[in-house]
Amino acid sequence: MKTEQQGKKRRGVEQVQARWGWYFVIPAILFFAVFSFYPILNAFTMSFFKKNMISPLPPRFIGLGNYIFVLQSPDFWNSVRATIVFTLGTFIPLVVASLLIALLITLQGKNFRLWQLLYYSPAVLSSAVAALIWMQIFTPTGIANQVVNALRHTSGVDMRWLSSGEMVQLSTMIVYFWKYIGYFTVLYITGITKIPPVIYEAATIDGASRGQAFFKITLPLLKPTTALVSIVAMLQCLKTFSTQFLFTQSGAPKAPINVITLNIYNTALKDYNVGRASVMSILLFVTMLILTIVQLKVSRSDDVTY
Amino acid sequence: MTSKAMNLGSSKLLVSNGIDVIIRIFLFLFAVIVLVPLAFMLTASFMPSSEITQMPYRWIPSQIAWRNFYRALAGNDGNFIYIRNILNSLFVSVTVAFTTVILSSITGYSLAKFHFKGKNIVFMGIMMTMMIPFEPIMVPMYMVALKLGMQNSYQGLIIPFMMNAFGVFLMRQYLQTFPTDIIDAARIDGCSEPKIFRSIVLVNSGPAVASLAILTFRQQWDNLMWPLMIAQDKKFKTIPTYIVSFAEEKLSDEGAMMAAALIASIPVIIMFLTLSKYFVGGSSVYSSGKE
Lengths: 306, 291
Description:
The complex is a heterodimer.
Chain A: H1 2-46, E1 49-50, E2 60-61, H2 65-72, H3 74-108, H4 112-124, H5 127-137, H6 143-152, H7 165-193, H8 197-205, H9 210-221, H10 223-238, H11 242-249, H12 260-269, H13 274-300
Antiparallel strand pairs in A: 1-2
Helix pairs in contact in A: 1-13, 2-13, 3-7, 3-10, 4-7, 5-7, 5-11, 7-10, 10-13, 12-13
Chain B: H1 17-44, H2 49-52, H3 66-74, H4 81-113, H5 119-129, H6 134-147, H7 154-158, H8 165-176, H9 180-188, H10 193-202, H11 206-221, H12 225-230, H13 239-249, H14 254-274, H15 276-279
C-alpha cells in the first residue's frame, strides 16, 4: 500500500512538472505560430490570390495567375539574374579570401584575437551605415576613384561606381565583401584551430614535411568547414537588401541591382501587389530552404564540429 | 613546446621566422585596407563638407566641423528627430534583447529539463522556424501587423522580434548541462517552478544570457527592413531608417551624413571594443590571444 501511494505521488509530481514544462513553452509556441508558421503559409496561400495591399477588397482567387505572370515577367528574371550575379560574385571571393586570411593568421601563430578583431570590425556596423559610407567613397570625387587612378597612373578618371550599370553591381559586392570578410575568417579560424595538434604530431613523427602536412592534413580536414562556410555565405548573400535599397534610393540604376528581396519589397509596398510579391517570396523561400537543408546535412557530416 | 605551436602541432610545421614576418606585413596591409572606410567615416564626420569632396582626400580636417553633428541630429526638418530615432533604436534593441533572453531561456529550460508529451515535436517545430528567414515572410508579417494595428508603434517594432529560434537553441544547449540536482533540491524544498527558473537557473546562466543579449541587441540595431515597412511616421523610425531618409534628402551634405553614420555606430563600436569576446571567439580555443 505504501508503494502504491508512493507510485501515485511520483506520478503526480511528474504530471505537475510536465504541466509546467508545457506552460513554459506556450509563449514560444504562440509566437512562432503567429510570426513564423502563419506568415509562410499565408505567403503560400496569397500567391494564388489577387490582392491589393491597401484596398479593403477581399483577395480574389486566381489560381496560377500570379505564377504565370511572374515566371513570364522579364523584371522577375532580371531580379533572378541580379541575385545570382551578386551571390556568386560575392560568396566565392568571400569564401576564398577568408580561407586564405584564416590560414595566414594561423600560420604566423600570434595575436589571433587581434587580427580577427581587425578584420571583423566592419561587420559591427549596421548595413545602412556601411552602405552610406561606401556611397560616399564611390562618389566621383571619392577615395575609390582616387585609389584606382593612383594605381593606374591615370588622373581624373571616374569609374562611375554608382552610375554605371556594370559598376554598380561590383560596388554592391564590394560593400558586402568588406562587411563580411571578418565574419567568415573567424568561422574558418574556428575550424582550423579545432584540428587536434595530435594529428600534426603524428604526421611529424611519420616524417611529413610542412608542405605535406598542410596539403594532406589541413586542407582536407577543412573541407566540411568550407562547405559550411560556402552555404552560410550563399544564404547571407541571398538576403541582401540594405545596400541595394540605399543605392537605388539615392539614384543608382535599379535594374542591374534589383535583387529579389528588393523586388519583393517594391512589389508589395510600392505596387501594392500582394499576390505577385508572395510568389516571389515563396520562390525565394524554397531556394533558401534547399540551401539550409544542404547546410544541415553538411554540418552533420562535419568532423570538425562547432 | 611553446604555445606558438599550439595550433599547428609541432613547431616544425610553423613557417620559418622570415616568412612569419612577411605574412604579418601582408595581413597588416590588408587590415589597413579593410579599416580605411571606417577611418574615412571617422575623419569625414569631423570635416566640413567642402573638404570631404576635395581631391585628393586630406585625411586630417583643417577645422573640426561640429556643425556636422548638429545638422545630423537636427535632421532634414530641423526638429532633431534623429535624437528620437536614436532613442527608439536603443529602446527597441534593448527591449528585444531582453524579451529574447527571457523567452528563449524559459523555452530552452523547458526543452532541456522537463519531460512532457510532445516535447520533441515542439522542439523540432521551433527548430524548423530557423529555416524560415525574414525576407520571404516580410509581406505576410507586414499584413499581420497591419491587421493588429501595430504600425507606427513600439509594439510593432518589438513584438515580431520578441524571440527567435536560435536563442531557444542556444539556451537549450547551455541549460542541458545545468546540474539537475540543484533544481530537484529546490523542488524538494517546495520552491515553485517559476521561482526556480528565476532565482536559480536564470541567475546562474550568465555567459549564455550575456552572449544572447549582445548578439540580439546587435542584430536588432541593424534591422532596416522591418522598421522601414512598419514605421512610416518619423517619430517611430529607428536609426537605419533615419539614415535612409537622410540619404534620400541630404545626399549633398556629406559632412552631416558621415556624422549621422558615426553617431549611429557609436553604441555598437563601444560594445565591440569592450565586449569583443562576445563577437569574436567566445570559446576558450582563442586563449592564444595573449601570445
